UniProtKB/TrEMBL annotation:
It comes from Neoroseomonas oryzicola. InterPro entries: ClpP/crotonase-like_dom_sf, Enoyl-CoA_hyd/isom_CS, Enoyl-CoA_hydra/iso, Enoyl-CoA_hydra_C. One of its GO terms (biological process) is fatty acid beta-oxidation. It comes from the Bacteria. NCBIfam families: PRK06495.1 (NF005073). Keywords: Lyase. This is Enoyl-CoA hydratase/isomerase family protein. SUPFAM superfamilies: ClpP/crotonase. The keyword Protein transport does not apply. Belongs to the enoyl-CoA hydratase/isomerase family.
Length: 260
Protein backbone atom coordinates (compact mmCIF):
# COMPACT_ATOMS: atom_id res chain seq x y z
CA UNK A 1 0.00 0.00 0.00
CA UNK A 2 1.43 3.43 -0.92
CA UNK A 3 2.90 5.22 2.09
CA UNK A 4 3.71 2.12 4.12
CA UNK A 5 6.38 0.42 2.06
CA UNK A 6 9.70 -0.75 3.54
CA UNK A 7 8.37 -1.75 6.93
CA UNK A 8 10.77 -3.65 9.18
CA UNK A 9 8.80 -4.46 12.34
CA UNK A 10 5.19 -4.41 11.12
CA UNK A 11 3.34 -6.39 8.47
CA UNK A 12 0.15 -5.09 6.83
CA UNK A 13 -2.31 -7.15 4.81
CA UNK A 14 -5.57 -5.80 3.37
CA UNK A 15 -8.51 -7.94 2.29
CA UNK A 16 -12.24 -7.24 1.99
CA UNK A 17 -12.00 -3.84 3.64
CA UNK A 18 -9.99 -5.15 6.61
CA UNK A 19 -6.35 -4.31 7.33
CA UNK A 20 -4.50 -6.78 9.54
CA UNK A 21 -1.48 -5.16 11.18
CA UNK A 22 0.94 -7.65 12.72
CA UNK A 23 3.76 -6.67 15.06
CA UNK A 24 6.73 -8.76 13.95
CA UNK A 25 9.85 -7.85 15.92
CA UNK A 26 11.35 -11.06 17.33
CA UNK A 27 11.76 -12.35 19.88
CA UNK A 28 8.99 -10.61 21.89
CA UNK A 29 7.69 -7.72 19.74
CA UNK A 30 9.24 -5.10 22.04
CA UNK A 31 8.57 -1.48 21.15
CA UNK A 32 11.46 0.80 20.18
CA UNK A 33 11.84 3.99 18.16
CA UNK A 34 11.55 2.13 14.86
CA UNK A 35 8.34 0.47 16.01
CA UNK A 36 6.83 3.79 17.10
CA UNK A 37 7.76 5.47 13.82
CA UNK A 38 6.27 2.62 11.78
CA UNK A 39 3.04 2.21 13.73
CA UNK A 40 2.40 5.95 13.53
CA UNK A 41 3.03 5.94 9.78
CA UNK A 42 0.89 2.83 9.22
CA UNK A 43 -2.12 4.04 11.18
CA UNK A 44 -1.99 7.51 9.63
CA UNK A 45 -2.10 5.90 6.18
CA UNK A 46 -4.90 3.50 7.15
CA UNK A 47 -6.83 6.44 8.59
CA UNK A 48 -6.97 8.00 5.12
CA UNK A 49 -7.29 4.79 3.09
CA UNK A 50 -10.63 4.41 1.33
CA UNK A 51 -10.10 0.68 0.85
CA UNK A 52 -9.79 0.03 4.59
CA UNK A 53 -12.84 0.20 6.83
CA UNK A 54 -11.68 -1.72 9.91
CA UNK A 55 -8.35 -2.84 11.37
CA UNK A 56 -7.09 -5.83 13.35
CA UNK A 57 -3.91 -5.38 15.39
CA UNK A 58 -2.08 -8.52 16.57
CA UNK A 59 1.37 -9.92 17.26
CA UNK A 60 3.49 -12.51 15.49
CA UNK A 61 4.63 -15.60 17.39
CA UNK A 62 3.75 -16.18 21.03
CA UNK A 63 3.66 -12.52 22.13
CA UNK A 64 1.37 -9.59 21.40
CA UNK A 65 3.98 -7.12 22.66
CA UNK A 66 6.30 -7.44 25.66
CA UNK A 67 6.30 -3.64 26.02
CA UNK A 68 9.00 -1.03 25.70
CA UNK A 69 12.46 -2.16 24.70
CA UNK A 70 14.49 -1.18 27.77
CA UNK A 71 17.60 -0.92 25.61
CA UNK A 72 15.87 1.98 23.88
CA UNK A 73 15.38 4.07 27.03
CA UNK A 74 16.51 7.72 26.86
CA UNK A 75 19.59 8.86 28.73
CA UNK A 76 18.33 10.77 31.78
CA UNK A 77 21.60 12.72 31.83
CA UNK A 78 20.90 14.25 28.42
CA UNK A 79 18.78 17.38 28.58
CA UNK A 80 15.55 17.02 26.60
CA UNK A 81 15.93 13.27 26.04
CA UNK A 82 12.92 12.21 28.12
CA UNK A 83 10.43 14.78 26.73
CA UNK A 84 11.39 13.80 23.19
CA UNK A 85 11.11 10.09 23.99
CA UNK A 86 7.78 10.52 25.80
CA UNK A 87 6.34 12.44 22.87
CA UNK A 88 7.16 9.55 20.54
CA UNK A 89 5.64 7.03 22.95
CA UNK A 90 2.40 8.99 23.11
CA UNK A 91 2.28 9.24 19.32
CA UNK A 92 2.55 5.46 19.05
CA UNK A 93 -0.65 5.12 21.08
CA UNK A 94 -2.48 8.24 19.89
CA UNK A 95 -2.31 7.15 16.24
CA UNK A 96 -4.44 4.10 17.11
CA UNK A 97 -6.97 6.06 19.16
CA UNK A 98 -7.18 8.84 16.57
CA UNK A 99 -7.46 6.54 13.55
CA UNK A 100 -10.87 7.00 11.97
CA UNK A 101 -11.31 3.25 11.50
CA UNK A 102 -12.29 0.92 14.37
CA UNK A 103 -9.31 -1.11 15.63
CA UNK A 104 -9.69 -4.58 17.11
CA UNK A 105 -6.84 -5.86 19.29
CA UNK A 106 -6.37 -9.59 18.84
CA UNK A 107 -4.21 -10.23 21.90
CA UNK A 108 -2.56 -13.51 20.99
CA UNK A 109 -0.07 -13.68 23.88
CA UNK A 110 1.69 -11.61 26.49
CA UNK A 111 0.78 -7.90 26.50
CA UNK A 112 3.12 -6.31 29.01
CA UNK A 113 3.61 -2.65 29.96
CA UNK A 114 3.48 -0.60 26.76
CA UNK A 115 2.15 -3.74 25.04
CA UNK A 116 -0.77 -3.78 27.44
CA UNK A 117 -1.42 -0.09 26.80
CA UNK A 118 -1.31 -0.72 23.06
CA UNK A 119 -4.13 -3.23 23.43
CA UNK A 120 -6.08 -0.88 25.71
CA UNK A 121 -6.06 1.98 23.18
CA UNK A 122 -7.84 -0.21 20.61
CA UNK A 123 -11.61 0.04 20.19
CA UNK A 124 -12.36 -3.62 20.87
CA UNK A 125 -10.21 -6.14 22.75
CA UNK A 126 -10.31 -9.88 22.03
CA UNK A 127 -7.92 -12.22 23.86
CA UNK A 128 -6.59 -15.74 23.54
CA UNK A 129 -7.30 -17.98 26.51
CA UNK A 130 -3.59 -18.35 27.31
CA UNK A 131 -2.73 -14.70 26.68
CA UNK A 132 -2.22 -12.31 29.56
CA UNK A 133 -1.86 -8.62 30.37
CA UNK A 134 0.52 -7.21 32.93
CA UNK A 135 1.77 -3.75 33.88
CA UNK A 136 5.27 -4.36 35.25
CA UNK A 137 6.40 -0.75 35.69
CA UNK A 138 6.69 -1.00 39.48
CA UNK A 139 9.07 -3.94 39.09
CA UNK A 140 11.55 -1.95 36.99
CA UNK A 141 11.33 1.38 38.79
CA UNK A 142 9.03 3.09 36.30
CA UNK A 143 5.48 4.41 36.24
CA UNK A 144 2.85 4.94 33.59
CA UNK A 145 -0.31 3.57 32.04
CA UNK A 146 -2.67 4.64 34.82
CA UNK A 147 -4.93 6.71 32.59
CA UNK A 148 -5.34 3.97 29.99
CA UNK A 149 -5.87 1.24 32.58
CA UNK A 150 -8.58 3.31 34.30
CA UNK A 151 -10.52 3.46 31.01
CA UNK A 152 -11.07 -0.31 31.14
CA UNK A 153 -10.74 -1.43 34.78
CA UNK A 154 -12.75 -0.57 37.87
CA UNK A 155 -10.97 1.56 40.46
CA UNK A 156 -9.96 -1.26 42.80
CA UNK A 157 -8.99 -3.62 39.97
CA UNK A 158 -6.91 -0.90 38.32
CA UNK A 159 -4.96 -0.30 41.50
CA UNK A 160 -4.49 -4.02 42.13
CA UNK A 161 -3.30 -4.48 38.55
CA UNK A 162 -0.79 -1.61 38.66
CA UNK A 163 0.47 -1.92 42.24
CA UNK A 164 1.12 -5.68 42.10
CA UNK A 165 2.20 -6.13 38.44
CA UNK A 166 0.00 -9.22 38.52
CA UNK A 167 -0.57 -11.17 35.31
CA UNK A 168 -4.24 -11.30 34.31
CA UNK A 169 -5.07 -14.19 32.00
CA UNK A 170 -7.33 -13.97 28.98
CA UNK A 171 -10.06 -15.76 30.94
CA UNK A 172 -9.75 -13.27 33.83
CA UNK A 173 -9.75 -10.28 31.46
CA UNK A 174 -12.94 -11.53 29.85
CA UNK A 175 -14.56 -12.13 33.25
CA UNK A 176 -13.57 -8.59 34.31
CA UNK A 177 -15.09 -7.22 31.06
CA UNK A 178 -11.79 -5.75 29.93
CA UNK A 179 -11.99 -8.02 26.87
CA UNK A 180 -15.12 -8.54 24.77
CA UNK A 181 -14.26 -12.15 23.97
CA UNK A 182 -11.85 -14.95 24.93
CA UNK A 183 -10.99 -17.71 22.43
CA UNK A 184 -8.55 -20.54 21.83
CA UNK A 185 -5.42 -19.02 20.34
CA UNK A 186 -5.85 -20.92 17.07
CA UNK A 187 -9.25 -19.27 16.53
CA UNK A 188 -8.50 -15.74 17.75
CA UNK A 189 -7.29 -14.05 14.57
CA UNK A 190 -10.08 -15.50 12.43
CA UNK A 191 -12.68 -14.31 14.94
CA UNK A 192 -11.15 -10.82 15.03
CA UNK A 193 -11.00 -10.62 11.24
CA UNK A 194 -14.61 -11.80 10.93
CA UNK A 195 -15.71 -9.11 13.37
CA UNK A 196 -13.71 -6.50 11.45
CA UNK A 197 -15.30 -7.69 8.19
CA UNK A 198 -18.73 -7.29 9.79
CA UNK A 199 -17.84 -3.70 10.76
CA UNK A 200 -16.44 -3.06 7.27
CA UNK A 201 -19.85 -3.93 5.84
CA UNK A 202 -21.60 -1.11 7.70
CA UNK A 203 -22.00 2.45 6.42
CA UNK A 204 -18.40 3.74 6.64
CA UNK A 205 -19.31 7.37 7.32
CA UNK A 206 -21.60 6.28 10.15
CA UNK A 207 -18.91 4.06 11.67
CA UNK A 208 -16.40 6.92 11.44
CA UNK A 209 -18.90 9.26 13.12
CA UNK A 210 -19.46 6.70 15.86
CA UNK A 211 -15.72 6.47 16.52
CA UNK A 212 -15.45 10.27 16.64
CA UNK A 213 -18.22 10.29 19.22
CA UNK A 214 -16.46 7.66 21.37
CA UNK A 215 -13.18 9.56 21.18
CA UNK A 216 -14.54 13.06 21.80
CA UNK A 217 -17.41 12.32 24.18
CA UNK A 218 -15.59 10.04 26.63
CA UNK A 219 -14.89 12.82 29.11
CA UNK A 220 -17.72 15.19 28.13
CA UNK A 221 -20.73 15.74 30.39
CA UNK A 222 -23.74 13.68 29.29
CA UNK A 223 -25.73 16.57 27.80
CA UNK A 224 -22.87 18.03 25.74
CA UNK A 225 -21.73 14.59 24.56
CA UNK A 226 -25.18 13.54 23.38
CA UNK A 227 -25.70 16.90 21.69
CA UNK A 228 -22.47 16.32 19.74
CA UNK A 229 -23.72 12.88 18.68
CA UNK A 230 -26.93 14.44 17.40
CA UNK A 231 -24.94 16.81 15.18
CA UNK A 232 -23.26 13.74 13.66
CA UNK A 233 -26.62 12.13 12.95
CA UNK A 234 -27.91 15.31 11.32
CA UNK A 235 -24.83 15.49 9.06
CA UNK A 236 -25.11 11.81 8.11
CA UNK A 237 -28.75 12.24 7.10
CA UNK A 238 -27.58 14.24 4.08
CA UNK A 239 -25.14 11.60 2.80
CA UNK A 240 -25.66 9.21 -0.10
CA UNK A 241 -24.95 6.22 2.13
CA UNK A 242 -27.75 7.07 4.55
CA UNK A 243 -30.18 7.54 1.67
CA UNK A 244 -29.03 4.19 0.25
CA UNK A 245 -29.52 2.49 3.63
CA UNK A 246 -33.09 3.79 3.91
CA UNK A 247 -33.88 2.76 0.33
CA UNK A 248 -32.40 -0.71 0.87
CA UNK A 249 -34.46 -1.14 4.03
CA UNK A 250 -37.65 -0.21 2.22
CA UNK A 251 -36.80 -2.49 -0.70
CA UNK A 252 -35.73 -5.37 1.57
CA UNK A 253 -32.24 -5.68 0.04
CA UNK A 254 -28.65 -5.36 1.21
CA UNK A 255 -27.36 -1.78 0.97
CA UNK A 256 -24.30 -0.88 -1.12
CA UNK A 257 -22.23 1.69 0.72
CA UNK A 258 -19.74 3.92 -1.09
CA UNK A 259 -18.46 6.11 1.71
CA UNK A 260 -20.09 9.29 0.54
Amino acid sequence: MPGIEDLSVLRVEVAEGVATVTIDRPPVNAQNGVFRDEITRVFDVLHESEEVRAIVLTGAGKTFSAGADLRDRPDAAKRGAFPRHSRGVRAGFDCVMECGKPVIAAVNGAAIGAGCVLALVCDIILVAEDAFMSMTEVEVGLAGGVQHVLRHFGQSDARMFLYTARRLSGVELHRMRVASGCYPKAELLAVAQAMAKDIAGKAPLAVAAMKRAFTLCEYMPLHEGYRFEQTQTAALAKTEDTKEALAAFAEKRKPVFRGR
